[in-house]
Amino acid sequence: MNLAFRRGHMRQKAAIRFLFLAVVCLLAVSPVLAQKVQGEAGIGFMAISPNLTDTIANFAVGDMLYGVTVSYAVRPWLSVSTDVLYLGDSYYGPGAGTFSEGPSSWAGLQSASGDKANWKYYESFIYAPLSINLMAPLGIVRPYLGLGPAFYFHFPSTNQDTAFTDYLKTHYGSAAVVGRIGQGLTARVGFDVFLGDSFSVGAGYVVREDTPVTVFKDIGDLNFYKEKGYLFLVGRFYIK
Question: Strand pairing partners for 47?
C-alpha cells in the first residue's frame, strides 16, 4: 500500500513539474510570437453552423454553411478582419396575407409545417461584417474578441407577394428592402491555434444584429443569441 501511495505521489509530482515547465515555456515563447504578429496578413476559409436554434434542434454536417475571411494585425494586440459569409435562410410566416413571424430559424418558426424546402416565405442571407479585434497572443494560442459594423445582402423568396414585401419593409425599412442591402452590427469571440509560422486553425461564435435600433433590447434576450448566433471553424494562412 505504501509502495502504491509513493508511486501515485511520484506521478502527481511529475505531472506538476510537466505543467510547470509547459507554463514556463508558453510564457517564454509568448513575447517572441507577439513580436511577429504586427504586420501579419491572414486569409482563411470558414465552416459555419446554422444558427444556434437550428443547430441545437437538429444539427447535420450537411447543413454547414461557409465563408471566407481576411485579416491584418495592426498591433500585436489589435487586428482588423472582414468576412464574406453565406448564412443560409431565415423564414417568415404564416403567410396568406397576414405575417406575424420572422425572420426566424426553421426550428423557431411556430407556423412551420411540412418540408422546409417547400416553404414559400424565406430570405437568403450573405453577410459581410467588418470586425475590430482585440487579441491576446499567448504563445501558440491567440484568443480574440471583436466588434464592428456589418453589411448584409438579403434576397427574398418572392417579390410578387405584396403582404410579404410590406412585412419586410416594416422590419428592415423601405430602403433596405428595395436595395436588398442593409447595415447592422456584429460581435464575435474565438481563438486560433498556430500549427506553424504560417497556418492556424480555430473556432468561435459570431452574432449579427440586423436592426441596430433594437440592439439594447436584443442584448438582454437569450433567444437573440440563438436566432442570430453561429458557431464557426476556421483555417487561416498568414503572410508576414
Answer: 66, 233
